[in-house]
Amino acid sequence: MGDGWTMRKMWVGAGVAVALGMGFVMLLVVGVYLVAGSGAGGVGGGAKRLAKGSVPAAYQPIVQKWGNLCPAINPALLAAQLYQESGFNPRARSAAAAQGIAQFIPGTWATHGIDGDGDGDRDVWDPADAIPSAASYDCSLASYVKDVPGDPTENMLASYNAGAYAVIKYQGVPPYKETQNYVRVITTLEKSFAAPTGRVDPSEQAAGAIAYAQKKLGTPYLWGGTGTAEQGGRFDCSGLTRAAYESVGIELPRVANDQYNAGPHPGREELLPGDLVFFSDDLTNSRAIRHVGIYVGGGYMIDAPRTGAVIRFDPIDTPDYFGATRVTEDGAKALPTTV
Predict the structure, then answer these.
(1) In this predicted structure, what is the pLDDT of residue 10?
(2) Closest-CA residue to 253 (of 319, 331, 183)
């Protein structure tokens, strides 16, 4: 019958098993995944646009403009680098003396820092200078290795990590674990900052994550709860979503706004059971997300809402609905641990 039919049978089996304990809401899982299995084609190609709210509004125009500086970069890739480096924190400072939102060390800034906003100075702490400088530096590296075979973006990223000389020497991404991991991480994170240009593939682990969350219905909320025995098996919102995906072998960050970057972002009309759904008082900034739940279909999620409440079904269509993430194993592994 082919792989598509195998996937559809898997969704049906998983959906029916979970539906036995979840009533009408989980019955929707079967139908939704039948449609997804037949229509999903992955993220299409084309020019990269930033996903709504994925970059803080104050920096979005700069990232969008400078992310198109040369063919080796795009706005989503530049955003992924900034997120990896500083979590969009313009005051970030590392133990290695790296500074600002783009984490330039002083020597590199002296050579590659530019006056991005044209105000007459080059300030590593000013995102209006640092973000354009990061894009300019990327493009300079890309020009150094333009004659090297392979993917120009991967060669640029490898140069960023290991130096252009190493990329030229090995005629591509050098055989260094750290460099190969850096290239993989940034190109994976790029997908969480790019607006999808086609249907996003279903998650194979979604049904298991929903089944875990369903078993926790009725459990009292606990601020900071991660479900440990000492906490009486109680959770807060991101503790529940983290545990649900951990039960199927995917390790998510602890807090909701970092969980948002664990995969691509389907639109509201494309939601599938298992997607994480997020809520914020600032709909322009993913770093301001304050709540997360697991979508189960029919406009409902399972979530741990607040102190005094229990884990329950709640509607997602509220004024503070921010967006959704389709969790992927690679996306979760690519997330930085220090933002």
Answers:
(1) 34
(2) 331
Please tell me whether residue 64 adopts helix, strand or coil conformation: helix
Q: What is the pLDDT of residue 254?
A: 92
Give the Cα separation of 224 and 209 in Å (integer).
20
pLDDT at 201: 83
Q: Looking at this protein, which amino acid is placed at residue 180?
A: Q
Q: Check if the beta carbon of residue 69 is closer than 8 Å to that of residue 62.
A: no
User: What pLDDT was estimated at residue 40?
Assistant: 38
Residues 140, 141, 144, 150, CA torsion sign:
negative
Asked whether the beta carbons of 325 and 265 are under 8 A apart, the reply is: yes
CB count in 10 Å sphere of residue 6: 10
User: What pLDDT shows up at residue 178?
Assistant: 95
Tokens, residue 6: 């195998």
- Contact call for residues 77 and 139 (beta carbons, < 8 A): no
Tokens of 246: 């951990």
Largest CA distance in the chain: 66
pLDDT at 338 (0 to 100): 60
End-to-end Cα, the chain, rounded Å: 45
Beta strands in the chain (DSSP E): 276-280, 289-297, 300-303, 312-315, 321-325
Contact (Cβ atoms closer than 8 angstroms) between residue 224 and residue 236: yes
Note the pLDDT of residue 168. Answer: 98
- Residue showing tokens 């890739």: 77
Residues of the chain with pLDDT under 50: 1-46
What is the dihedral angle through the alpha carbons of 286, 292, 295, 301, rounded to the nearest 10 degrees? -140
**Quick check: helix, strand or coil at residue 321?**
strand
Q: How far apart are CA 16 and CA 18, in angstroms?
A: 5
Residue 4, number of CB atoms within 10 A of its CB? 11
pLDDT at site 47: 61
Give the dihedral of Cα atoms 235, 324, 206, 192; nearest 10 deg: -110
At 186-215, the pLDDT tens digits run 999 999 999 888 888 888 899 999 999 999
Question: What SS3 string covers 98-135?
Answer: CECCCCECHHHHHHHCCCCCCCCCCCCCCHHHHHHHHH
